[in-house]
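Friendly challenge for the regulars: who can give me the structure tokens for this chain first? No prize, just bragging rights.
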Amino acid sequence: MGNSEPSNKASLSAVQQDQKYLVKSAVYNLAGTLLKVLAPVLMIVVARVFDKALFGVFVSTQLWVLTLSRVSVLGLDKGLHRYLPQNLVQGRTRYEGVMESVYRTLLISGGLTLVILLAANFGLHKLSSGLSMLSTAEISLFILSLLPWSLLHVFAGTCEGSRRPQYKIFINDFAVSALAPLLALIFYFGGFAEKLALPLGLLLANSLGVVIYIFIVKNLFPEMPWVIRKKLPRELLHFSLPLGFSEVVTSFLLRLDLWMVLALIGPEAAGIYAVMVTISNGLKTIRQSYNPILLPVVAGMDSSRLKTDLKPVFTYCVSMVTLIQLAIGFFIVLFPEQTMMIAGKSFITKENPVAVLGILMIGNLINGMFGLSGSVINGLGKSKFMLKMNIVSLVFAITMNYLLIPLFGIAGAALSSMSYQILQCVWMNVYLVKMGYWPYKKSLFVQGSLILILALFYIGLNQGISLSIASKIVTYSIAVLVILAVFYFQGLFGKKYSRKKSR
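First reply, four minutes later:
Bragging rights claimed.
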């Protein structure tokens, strides 16, 4: 009896720390979301300035390099989310695993870079119609971005594992993402060939991000030597590898529709679809930015806290994600033509922007509502399940794209993207229920209802219901006011979440 009071105090302290961390991270994420707008806007400017087909090739090739960077990291960035908080608990030095992960990533990414540079000189560009538009030098510039891009992942994981998510938000998600297209535009108007300006901007932006991270990590761990003294910890590697394979598969999943549009229809259609994906990905990145916030909190809970604190913590994160997504989603669904016009008239084609953008929006909104369950599963240490699910989803997505793209064009790619996201959300939540967890509070019914209303708007507009610009402006204003009201009444900024066990 006498020992329970200190235990309760410790638990309360942990709850308070988690609450403070979640609120602070939510503020950073909200600020980061506003800043993230700059990157897609600049990408749209790039789409207007550069040749449409070349833009499609640029986005596709950039995504290939990003996928290879995920391969190079081996999931170590995600593994550090769990490993670094455990260093103090296990009596290890608080920086153990950081430099070991950096060196391992340098070794793998450097090796892949050399292999692909050699391949570029032996006809790599002949493998696809998109790459055939690029010379050996241009492909080489893209590949040189692989090494700094891989290091960006590791340094971001180091900061997130140290509960410093703001650095990843402002460097990876904002500064680097915005700087790459900005530099490309500067090089282009400075006289560089457009095929060189695009990969050069990407290379320099990633390299600058690495330099900034070096100073940040030095400040986080001033006592850390930058020369490794031992091998990569086995515990870190064993936990990271399933996450790494899962991340690689996920990277393929996220880019598969664009690649198959490029392969089955051609670079021009890929350029058009790339703009739509760029716009809709604003929603996806919001959900993704909460993964490293939620995972360390769940991983730090014992069995007792999982019963009392998981549901309110999870609900808080889902509430923030869905409401921010809804504010963006209502605008895009109500004003799809105006949104696409930002990219230029050439991107308004026979393809119905209401249909394609609407499908992408709905898919990402469903994922925002139910997809954070993946962070809970990883936090519980079930990374092998996530790997299995992603592999099945990849096979499913390939099949759907192969069937739907020839029939419906880029709308088919959007349908495929939405379908595999729904599959994953259902599967993950069924798995959680089987484990004895249902992390959703009843208050999320409000967010779910708003998603349903948005879906109904999409269906109505796609079925020929016409609204004037004035009516759309009034509708969007009402939607924003409702969203702000939900923020206020649910106390999402500052109101401490309840530890009462929900029935």
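The two ends are 27 Å apart (CA to CA). The chain has 19 helices and no strands. Your move, everyone else.
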